[in-house]
Amino acid sequence: GLTVDARGELWVLAVLDPPPPPPPPIPAHAPGEGAGQGAGQGAEAAPAASPPTRRAPLLRVLHAPGPGALQEVARVPVAADGALRTGAPAVGPDGTVYVPLYEQRREGARGLGLGVVPATRDRLDLWPGRLGYDGEGLDGQPVLPDAWVNAVAVAADGTVWVATNAGLARQRGQQTTVFDENAFIDSEVILALTVDRAGRPWAGTFEGLGRLAGDAWTAVRPQGLGGPVHSIHLDSVGTLRVGTQHGLWVLESERTGWRRIDVDGRPDPGPVRGVWAGPGGDLWLATSQGLLRKAP
C-alpha cells in the first residue's frame, strides 16, 4: 500500500513474509536398526518431533520526505497465521501510520483490523474488529465494528475515520463512535472514504455517496450518481472525484455542483474502482478495461 500525506510526502508499506518452515527432521536409527524395525520388534519409538514454529511476517514502513530514495523508518512484526496483506494506509499529523491488514489463508482472505504504527516506530498496535459491537473498547484499545477495513482517513485534528463492512468508525481521543444503519446511513458496508478540508468525512457505500457533518449523515444524490461507490479522491485544491459503478463524477465546488466526466469517450465506462489526480492535472482511473489516463 502507498499514500501521499498532507505535506505531499510519499509513504509506502511493504510486507516481508517469512519463508515456510523446514520439514521436521527424520529420526535417526540406532546402529544396526533397520528403518522398518518398529516398536514391536524391540526398538523404542522415537519421540515425535515438535512442529516447526512459523515466524511472524514483518511490516516495513518506508518514507520519502523529499526527492530521492525511500528510507525505511520502521520494521515491525505482525501476528498473522496466513500471508500478510495490506490496504492503502493513511498518515496522521503526528506521523502515526494507519494501515488496513488482512491475511490470506487456504480458505480465503480474512480481515485482521487496523494496524497502527506510532510515531516512535517501535511497535505495531492492532485495532481489531468483532461482531456484536457495543461501542466500547477492550482494555482501552479501540475495537472496530468489523475486522475487514476497506479504507482509513485521518483529519487534520488527528481524528481517525475507519470504513468497515459493518459501519463507519470514528476514533477521537479515547472515544470510539460507530455510524451504521442505526445512524441512518444508507448501507453499513463502507467501500470508500476521504476527509475534506473542513474535516467532514465523505463515504461511499453500496447505496451511494454521503457525508457526515457533526453526527448527522446526509445522502448526496445528484441525478445519476448511485451506488456502489468504489473510490473517492480529494486533491490539493479541494476537487472531489467519485468513482461509481457507472462512471466518474466530479465536484469542484458547492457553487458549480456535480458533473459527470466522460472516460475514454464514454459517459459510462463501467465500474471506476480507483481514481488519482497527477500534479499536471492528469487523471488515472482503475476501470474494468484496465488503467486509463485522462489528459486535463
Please describe the structure with a list of short key phrases separated by commas or semicolons.
four-stranded antiparallel beta sheet; 296 residues; five-stranded antiparallel beta sheet; mainly beta
Question: What does the model show?
Answer:
This protein has 296 residues and is mainly β. The mean pLDDT is 84. 0% of the residues lie in helices and 44% in strands. It has no helices and 24 strands. The strands form 6 sheets. Strands 5, 6, 7, 8 and 9 form a 5-stranded antiparallel sheet that branches. A 4-stranded antiparallel sheet has the order 1-2-3-4, with no helix packed on it. It has a 4-stranded antiparallel sheet with strand order 10-11-12-13, with no helix packed on it.
What is shown here, in short?
This protein has no helices and 24 strands. With 296 residues, the protein is mainly β.
Classify the beta-strand content into a percent band.
Answer: 35-45%
Q: Please give the share of residues in helix.
A: under 10%
What's the total number of strands? 24
Low-pLDDT windows of residues: none
Using only C-alpha atoms, the radius of gyration works out to 24 Å
- Element pattern in H and E: EEEEEEEEEEEEEEEEEEEEEEEE
Give the overall average pLDDT. 84
Shape verdict: globular
The tally of helices reads 0
| Measured distance between first and last alpha carbons | 26 Å
Q: Strand pairing plus helix content: what structural class?
A: mainly beta
Largest sheet: 5 strands, antiparallel
Topology:
Elements: E1 2-4, E2 10-16, E3 58-64, E4 71-77, E5 83-86, E6 90-91, E7 97-105, E8 108-117, E9 125-127, E10 149-154, E11 160-164, E12 167-172, E13 175-179, E14 190-195, E15 201-205, E16 209-213, E17 216-220, E18 229-234, E19 240-244, E20 247-251, E21 258-261, E22 272-277, E23 283-287, E24 290-294
Antiparallel strand pairs: 1-2, 2-3, 3-4, 5-7, 6-7, 7-8, 8-9, 10-11, 11-12, 12-13, 14-15, 15-16, 16-17, 18-19, 19-20, 20-21, 22-23, 23-24
